[in-house]
Amino acid sequence: MATKKVKNDSNIWAFLGVFLGWIGFLIILLTRKEDKFAMFYAKYGLILSIAWVVVLLVGMLPIIGWLVYIVGGIILLIVWVISFISALSGKEKRFPILSDLADKITI
Question: pLDDT digit string (tens) for 26-64?
């Protein structure tokens, strides 16, 4: 007899929160504010969106900005993918700087 794995609704909301960035944060804030797991990843989505904007702005500077843009973009892409895979798997993955910033967001 095969065991049936029930898909947790919170995992999907957490995925949407981190995948859609600041828009996902707003969606989770307005619809699932009491869901701690979804809010955890929604805050990550917000922080990652802000980090993308910072990397894009710094990337406008010649030479050093271009290097920051390339390296920062690759790092943010990797963190973003790991975050939404962790959200779907139901695990709270903490990243050194992102977790500290996300914990400071109180709503």
Answer: 999 999 999 899 999 999 999 999 999 999 999 999 999
80 phi, psi to nearest 5 deg:
-60, -45
What are 48's two structure tokens? 């990652």
Our count of domains for the chain comes to 1
What is d(CA 19, CA 46) in angstroms, rounded to the nearest whole number? 10
- Find, among 22, 66, 12, the residue nearest to 42 by Cα: 22
**Would residue 3 count as lying in a domain?**
no
pTM across the whole model? 0.84
Q: Which domain holds residue 87?
A: 9-103
